[in-house]
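Protocol step 4 of 6: structure prediction from sequence.
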Amino acid sequence: MKTLGLIKRLMAPTYFAALAFGCSSTNEGSGTAAGAAGVVSTGGATSTGGVASTGGAVSNGGTPSTAGAPSAGGTPSNGGVGGSTSAGGGMAIGGSPSGGAMASGGSGGTPGGGGSSAGTTSSGGSGGSGTCGTATAKPCPPSGNNSIAYIGCSMANNIGNGYKAVGGKVMWNSDGYGTGAQCVPQWVEGGSAWGGFDNKLKAIGGKDVVKAIMVQICIIQPATDAQVKSMIKAARAHVNADAHIYLVGQPQYENGHHCDIAGGQEGTTEEQAKRLGADKSIDPNMSYLGTFLLNCDNGECADSCHASAGAGKGEERLGNQAKAFWGG
């Protein structure tokens, strides 16, 4: 009878669910899992725009100046300042605005139009892809190979697998780096998962290569804010002080689907990522990244939680979403 009771407990669905997901509320070893595909853009960062024009130089009442074509403008600074107009392009009192050409815009965004009339402030540039190239992460992510590290569970491994499958280079892929079985408790200060991270860090060339890190909140039961804060603090200790932390939740699911292994509460990870990612008192160099999405009704899930592998499947969708965040 005791043997029969044990068999019944082992056959319980929750037991197999916990095994499949591979992480628990205690520090335990890592496993591996499949990895990821396409991505939903959260929109480009808005630039601050060009500097306000102070208007052309004013004569003592002459007719509009026609001298001197406007200069082409210098290369914009990172703040998107744009080029200045030549002295010949200034207008006299009563004249029309000089035709100062608008600079092409740099990493700081498209500058506002040049040559506004005297006393009028230019409206500044508009935001858009010019701010970070094609990247949608805010602030602009780095662009060097392997310059974005990541931590998380098997769902992060799904992203790493898919990112490699679609040719991503900026973020780490899953080569030699399995994050399966690593939920929040394994990534807190002193957690068991950091040894694998340090090995990957060494393999890609060391700490100075990494300019940012994606920190995924992954659960089998909701994590406390204190646990997430400890995970963020541990992440900061493993990268340089100027490396940006992008906080993200587990992938979310379309059409009302839920991850059984997370107790159907994967939405709590998204809520925490948004709320804590905006709290500069936790870490001043941190922000919420955005949402990874899967559609289990469209063959993108291998089970109730994990992304499916293969061309056009869930891993590739997550990988493409990562490429949209990072711009490459």
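Step 5 (inspection) to follow. The domain at 12-45+134-326 is CATH 3.40.50 (Rossmann fold).
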